[in-house]
Amino acid sequence: MAKATTGNVPRETSARGGRLLAALALAVLALPVAASGPDAKAKAEAEAKAEAKPVTESLQVLHWWQSASERRAVDLLAERLGQQHVQWRDAMVPGGSGIGAGIVLRSRVLAKDAPEVAQLNGIVIRDWANLGLLADLDQVAARGDWERQLLPGIAALIRPGQHVVAAPLGIHRINILFHNRALFARHGLSAPVTWPDFERAAAVLARAGVTPLAQSSEPWQVATLFETLVLAEGGAAYFRQLFQQREPAAFADPRLGRALTHLRGLKKWMGAPVRELSWAEEVRQLADGSAGMLVMGDWAKGELNAMGLHSDRDIGCGAVPGTAAFHLYNVDMLSMLAERPAQRASQETLAAMVVQPALQRDYSRVKGSVPVLRAPDLAAMDACARASWTLFATSPAGQVPSMVHRMATDETARDAMVAELHRFFLNERVSVADTQRRLGVIGRRPQDR
Ligand code: GAL
């Protein structure tokens, strides 16, 4: 399988090289062709060669995919792009959920050193587009009939104003409780559907010396668990009031306090102290049975498969208790930076490629997400993916935009809330009431100030 090249190739060099080749090819084609003779024959052959050999352009793509399954997904994209004579040059900035990648991208744009393509998940594309930083993909979308091919929620997401400014790769479901099936069977446990089920299973596992719930103290991971608890506590409407509409009353609501208390209560099942693990390390704990359960987005499924497990047979995938009717989602997307008009054609090639049904099918299986299409190949999905896609596609009211994964609120408020939740989680002396007040201050909209 073709590997994405690392970021060491000087970007301008290869781009310039590509342009030079194109210019040479055009120059050759423009030469007046003599009617006959050996010279004409040789020239005609040279021309045919120049036409047959495609000019290779390259795109530098900034993203945060680092784990084994994420690398596989990148390799797949790079390979398929290569087949269209565009080279994927990798600019990976490590860091789960893309905190570091966002910072590097912003500073590169300010330094006029933007990559050609960036993983720019979420509603932040609206602000970037308003600043004129993103190329519009209207023509690609029209040619590919995206309006009819894509699920309506996805079509709306990538067109935050007048223009389409992102190519959607896949939809992740975040409110998933995974469990190790063999471990559960050994202890006579069944898949937890309610919180009391969860507590009973956790107690049995703890007595057996197994960590009931794999969890990291990384800020985004604490906040990811927390947002599933808010959903369990208050449902979709309350979640939106809190994180999308940021209504002051929602921050003062007792449901927020209960979700915070619940977060703290779950600590007893996580093993002490809660260590700062990468999400892939927790997936490993779930896979090897040192932990029994894990709340994580379904990118964990991609990783389980990359570890050689079978996502349906070996690992149970259910909704976080109390959230079965909801699809807490985020969408991986690629945006094209406008600063690079010379690479426009290659950017459009990549954008068109990512929504192709075959690419969607193959990419989703590797990544753990589900296709963004209205009519994907359901037979190619595992049961967990089928359930995710079906819920998302058939229940718009059940779609809940993740706060932590950038679907609900702006970056600044999100970062501040994640930091606050982290502080609350780590420091037992920080009270629920105080945290609730502080979240309310962060959430304040301009009209409430
Ligand atoms: C999410 C992203 C996923 C996965 C995860 C862990 O925000 O959508 O693709 O990379 O972070 O880093």
CATH architecture designation of the largest domain:
3-Layer(aba) Sandwich
In this entry the ligands are:
beta-D-galactopyranose
State the helicity in percent bands.
40-55%
What oligomeric arrangement do these chains adopt? single chain
How far is the first residue's CA from the last residue's CA?
A: 54 Å
Shape: globular
Rg (C-alpha, Å): 24 Å
Structural class: alpha/beta
Mean pLDDT value: 90
Content of β-strand: 5-15%
CATH fold annotation of the largest domain: D-Maltodextrin-Binding Protein, domain 2
CATH level-1 class of the largest domain = Alpha Beta
Total helical elements: 20
Runs in which pLDDT lies below 50 for 5 or more consecutive residues are 1-37
Within CATH, the superfamily of the largest domain carries the name: Periplasmic binding protein-like II
Question: How many independent structural domains?
Answer: 2
Main β-sheet description: 6 strands, mixed
- Count of β-strands: 10
The string of secondary-structure elements, in order, is HHEHEHEHHHHEEHHEHHHHEHEEHHHEHH
Keywords:
D-Maltodextrin-Binding Protein, domain 2, disordered N terminus, 20 helices, 6-stranded mixed sheet, 2 domains, alpha/beta, globular, 10 strands, 449 residues, 4-stranded mixed sheet, binds beta-D-galactopyranose
Provide an overview of this structure:
- This protein has 449 residues and is α/β, with parallel strands linked by helices.
- The protein folds into 2 domains: 57-173 and 331-388, Periplasmic binding protein-like II (D-Maltodextrin-Binding Protein, domain 2), CATH 3.40.190.10; 176-328 and 402-448, D-Maltodextrin-Binding Protein, domain 2, CATH 3.40.190.
- Helix content is 51%, strand content 12%.
- Strand 1, helix 3 (68-82) and strand 2 (86-92) form a beta-alpha-beta unit.
- The longest helix has 25 residues, at 219-243.
- The structure holds beta-D-galactopyranose.
- Beta-D-galactopyranose binds next to strand 9.
